[in-house]
Amino acid sequence: MSTHRFPPVSRREMLRRCGCGFGYLGLAGLFAQLADAAGTTGNPLLSKAPTRPARAKRVIFLFMHGGPSQVDTFDYKPLLTRDNGKVVPVKTGEILAPNSRLLASPFEFAQHGDCGRHISSLFPEVARHADKLCVIRSLHTDGQAHGQAVLKLHTGHESQVRPSMGSWVIYGLGTENQNLPGFVTISPSTLNGGPQNYGSAFLPAIYQGTPIGNENLPMSQAQIRHIRNADRSPSRQREQLNLIQEMNREHLERAQLDAQLEGVIESYELAFRMQTEAPRLTDLADESAATRALYGIDTPGTDDFGRQCLLARRFAEQGVRFIQVNHAFKWDQHVNLQRDHQRNAGEVDRPIAGLLTDLHQRGLLEDTLVWWGGEFGRTPFAQGRLDGRDHNPHGFTMWLAGGGARPGIAYGATDDYGTRAVENPVHMHDLHATLLHLLGLNHTQLTFRSAGRDYRLTDVRGEVVPGLLA
Amino acid sequence: MQPGVLLCLVLVSCLSALPLRTGAAANPADVTGLLAPTALKNPRWAFQPLASPVAPAVQNAAWPADPLDFFILKELEQRGLKPSPPADHRTLLRRVTFDLTGLPPTPEEMDRFLADTAPGAWARAVDLLLASRHFGERWGRHWLDVVRYADSNGTELNLPYPNAWRYRDYVVEALNRDKPYDEFIREQLAGDLLPETSTEERFEHLTATGFLVLGPKALFEPNRNKLDMDIVDEQIDVTTRAFLGLTVSCARCHDHKFDPIPTRDYYALAGIFKSTATVVSNRGDPNMPGPLRWQERPLTDAARAREIAAYEAKLSALEADREKARRQKMEFPGNIDSGRLRGIVVDNLAAEITGHWRESTGTTNFVDRNYLADGNAEKGKKSIRFVPNLPKAGLYEVLISYPPLWNRATNVPVTIEFAEGSITKRVDQTQAPTVDYIFTSLGRYRFAAGTNGAVSLSNIGTKGFVVADAARFIPVDEAPEMAMGAAGMIAPAMASTTRTNVLVASADLVELNDRIADLRAEAPAPLPSAMAVADGPVVNCQINLRGDPERLGEEVSRGFLTCLTVPAKAPAAEASGRLELAHWIASAQNPLTARVAVNRIWLHLFGRGLVETPDNFGALSEPPSHPELLDHLAQRFRQQGGSMKQLIRALVLSRTYQLSCGQDPTARARDPENRYYGHMNRRRLEAEALADAMLAVSGRLDRTIGGTLLGTNTPPGAVDPVMPDTGPTSNRRSLYSPVGRNRLSDLFQVFDFPDPQTVAARRHTTAAPTQALFMLNSPLVSEQARKWAEVLLARPLANDSERIQVAYLTAFGRPPSRNETQRALAFLGGGASGSTTTGTAGDSMLQNWQGLCHALFASTEFRFLD
Best of A170, A210, A251, A387 to disrupt the B interface by mutation (most B CBs within 10 Å)? Predict the structure, then answer.
């Protein structure tokens, strides 16, 4: 990758704001930057060496918006089946109306892989990868409502404005391909904080996530904003850009030296390359029929999410650092649990399995951390007409694969019915700390100063969970 | 977890490895020795009283034009640096026009300025701009950044703020009228408590307090106390950062780690805001989801106010009645617990259901959680069968329950399957059930034990709504008197509730709801209203231990920060204390207020602050590069009655402001960051200035001042009237584009518009490729370029060369060089001849011109201020 210099923020501002981040940048890195020939600025998006050995170079986060039910997917609870319909015999806390009745999962569980992982009939394809999965069954988070929990998941805080995790990651690590954004989110939702979930908050805007399409647009039409020019052909636009750049260089000459102007000149070249590269990347036409089939593309139901997952693999391959794939707000089954969880899983199961297979075959799973889950789980108790479950932030499941996550394990446990995390609980802060750890970042040192404080993704909490590491 | 709170701790742990003797040393950047040593190392420099420094002596005494220039020149001379030469007139006028109005000078304004060769031409040009109504738009926007202005609530439910714009217009007007800064402060914090001399002034004062209401609020937080304390925290944060440059909200959970702000002080302030009503009940307004809304106060004259008050009183009375009726109803719950009824009860929840029935709780008096309704549809396709499991064979009284209503069916077929056969009866569901107004008896029948009998009900042949709730089987030997339907029907626990109450309550509720709806329909036209606060019940706050509003410590009297010795009146016993707080902040004795204000003004004119952390003057601030200059300016600001215009005027008339951007090699080596202002900083146009400049240049700018472009587009009664996506929807200045929290337009997002959820006195300036993509490909730029091309082509000019000349003058404030003209002509395909545009290929001509105009917009010369 070529090393384009452009100054999104001045060196001075970076130094001042990095605050404790100074520690994480490391003296060596700092002086290397200072030694940088023309010397006044550096591209903060250049790929940076992590501060500790990294197991993962990039993340693909498969976000199941709405809250998939753990007891219907990856957290097998035989006692729930046995005690179906019973009034809850446990202390329920604030999450339930009194007299809620246990609701057995309508889905069959079976053991899969050498590890014998219990996975429900909702995920037959993902189940084939059971031995690759690091299933965390003891997550808990803050926020009883979607908005709070979604923000907690993405930004580490349920109500205040904080940078999203992807922004933190590229702030810490830069990105490997300067012709593409370092942090993309595919088909993001406008709900529950919307852009805040991929925003950079007080981090400079260069770290914000780049949306590809949105939840209301079929993936086949999704694109980076303003990536296409409607007025002129590429060659005509190049002529125009040449004119712009000539004017800009003359301006720079008159200014003699100005890092800001240089930065803008660089940004035009970068944009022009991005404009060529990104549409090529989002166009899946050059993928073989077999690959498309692997992801369930061209098959009703799985086509859309299949495209998202395939695009995620293409971004990963091209060195994009943080890729989020969004299964838009679908998993909120207060009613019609059986029908709609079946539909949702049906849409994502094959594409996700395809993604795991494809990453594995290409040797990418080694250093790509795949992360699956929603903002919270669901209660083991019934809601609605006995076919729905309420939100449950007190115990739920997510899984990791690849990227240094320990494969073939199930970590932690909820109680007998799946109400609360009771064994080895993993708070969302702990998960964030662990994910950053796998990327080679120390979550306590990845900080940014704003308004007199140094902020970090994990606030003052979070412990790396050693049991999740391969 | 407590919002906002724990972050301060991070800082401590991070910095623990660093020497903490002084605030300056706590700044890691200083620890590295990378920055120039600063004159001040006292972390509490900003809390010291203002000094009155005299202008220092300088070698080149002929250079300064304003006292401030002495301070600048002295530092330069001390470092062997020379100021750069002054900028040329064209550059200067472009610079100052953008700086004071956010717009480019028109070619006519440029000509006028160049033609004015008399002494004082610069001051005359500046005074014209200060008098322009666009001045307030430009500088008002700077203030709006600080006060996290937005047209929607943000958070989970992003409700639009239909009246936020009044506050924005207040700010613009305050700047245009050069409202003294202390007055500006007092009005925003306590306008509602200030005396007024006219109705207009009253409205203005009320509107100003929108400052406290504009923040994001978790209106749906179920814990009211937490909700209130979060709002208080947001208000403390914005107030202290905006006016004092202090991060007081750090002290919500623990004493401030760096600044002398104990938790007690935080809760002294918290009491003031807690005694202020920011959110109010939405009083069942059908347009507002949730129980609470932010407070708005009417802006109206006395007569209209009386009319409204009468209406409000009537409404309140009805609402009180309704509340009474509702409570009465709650005492006798509509859903009667089947477990408390004698006999065997089969509720609809346990019945066999055929067809689609809707669950309902709309009418009172039903068994268990709900009842079912057929929706008056699919007649003949819906039925329900109640099958009891009878303990023994025998004679049973069979009853069914249904909540009656006028629109129900009168002939609902009900079939009883008993031991000897079956019989179908008709039930009139418009009539109240005869037994306790809940059950109607269907007669006595003999049943076998077990599940052999049933009662079923169908909607076949019915007209009107059919409902199904429960069937009940009472062994006759247990209740021989049952047919009379006496109190004995109900188990003892419920017997105390009289059936009269049930009926009265239900009837009243329905009727009251109708009357309230009728009254609302005749409501007087809504008054113009502004987001504004009012004093509420006066309370002192108890310290929230670790910031937890449920864990209370010692009570703290309302008061101010103890770290600043500002003579002031303590909060009065009978009022919130906001007025006293406002006086305390605005006091001439408060050293922070003036320093923070002049630093921001400097920042906007010179591209960096004398203090580089404009929102934080605490221990972790960057000490001022020119401490004496800062105090000098603060003193002047104070002496000139807090006139922002006079200060701005002084700054732009200074030599320092008029320097060119050029930097010679010596200066570059010795002061690469231009910390000493040896030349002017080149600055990027912000999102608004860029968009407005394109509109102005293309001749499309609508210069209307004020008002709202926010169409809430919210159908009445909509459950989720969230803020619509926003973006430039008109040719008005970007200032008027509604600012949706979490809904920023592309333009704003890409060009570093600050997140409107937090105080931001200084914007980032990034150069992300997304900006380049926006300039190259966005329809907004392309469209403006086309309009501009049309305007240029329509001008009665001799040839393309002349058009290019006009284009350059309009966009850059200067004529093109010969080379530039030639290059533009070549781009247009017109060659070097300067041939005229009246060719045949009109379309491609327009396209070429659009391409050229687009290129000019995208150029750095357009996007930057030299």
Answer: A251
